[in-house]
Amino acid sequence: AGVVEFKDFTNQFEERRGLYTGILCQFFLLPLVGFLVVTALQLDEVIGITLLVATSSPGGSFSNWWCSVFNVDLALSVALTTVSTACSVVMLPLNMFVYAHLRYGRSVQLNWVSLCVSIAVVLSAVSSGLCVSARFPEHRNFTFRLGNAAGVVLILMGIFLSTRSGEGGGGSSADGRGYVFYVAVVSPPIIGMLASLCISSFCGLPKPQCIAVAIETCYQNTGIALTVALTSFTGEQQLRAAAVPVFYMASQFSLIFVMSICAWKAGWTYAPANVKVQKFLWTNFQPAFQPRPGRGVASTSSGVDLKEGAMASDASAAKGASRKAVSMGSGVNTPGGLESDGKAAKGDRRTGTDDDFKVV
């Protein structure tokens, strides 16, 4: 949020199409996909409920980092994170009530304190970032690079802490689990990502916004699912449940990275497809960072040529007008003017001499 123009952020609420599409995919598509996967694979209650919580959770705040690094629509991503986090107070319990009862005939106890703290952190981070961006626009490039570097560190810390959290009772490793576990956990983000791309394209969103919606749909706040796993189960069940959000997080990291690289090469991001990888990852190609016509800087090389041509044309016109004005005046500054004025004066003198002779 620290590199997003406030006007670009508010435009998302005025246009609304991107927000509606993202919320549809986030709270209706992905939870339904999770329920269908749990039902089709006949997952037991421990794995199934934890997976339902993961697919019903709001988008993770790191989705903004992914959109920033891979140069898709960051303003839409920040707006979707804000709205989905606020809506999760209602939509998360509602989806869990519906799908947990349909599949297992029971409800799930949510940690409301942890959920409210997560919501408060996200909303305060977005609001403070927008304030910093509006107050210090000249430092947005620095904020962009600092945020990218901090995002890498926080993601590594998140993976480490998630793994350590599951080791409270002897380890949360998914090693030795059957293929059904891996298929179940990786299927919702894959299906959700592909389906959200199709839906956003069908809705007519620009390509960078389609990728932003797909990232928001795929990347979930797995910390909520991990909290539910650690508070709802004990002993061996707790270890099995904690493995779901840990592996889900690793899966969504890999999927988003692969999709974003493919989107870049296919021309679905703001970055040119022919730039080098390091420039693609380290340079901010968001529209707000590009020179715009009307700000004294041409946006393209052709714009520079047009501007210079217009300046040359104006200079020529001004020079021609100046010459015309001078020639229409006293004629002092041009040879043609001096010659015509000399001839006229000579004719006047001759006429005067003849008249004077006749009178005398």
Protein described:
The protein has helices at 6-15, 17-40, 45-56, 62-69, 74-104, 112-135, 140-166, 179-202, 207-218, 222-232, 235-265, 277-282, 301-327, 335-359. The relative contact order is 0.13. Helix 3 (45-56) runs antiparallel to helix 10 (222-232) and helix 8 (179-202) packs across helix 11. Helices cover 76% and strands 0% of the residues. The protein is mainly alpha-helical and 360 residues long.
Overview features:
single chain; disordered C terminus; about 350 residues; 14 helices; globular; mainly alpha
**What is the radius of gyration?**
34 Å
Give the biggest beta sheet.
none
Spell the H/E element sequence.
Answer: HHHHHHHHHHHHHH
Strand content: under 5%
How widely separated are the two ends?
Answer: 100 Å
Approximate shape:
globular
Briefly note the structural class of the backbone. Answer: mainly alpha
How many DSSP helices?
A: 14
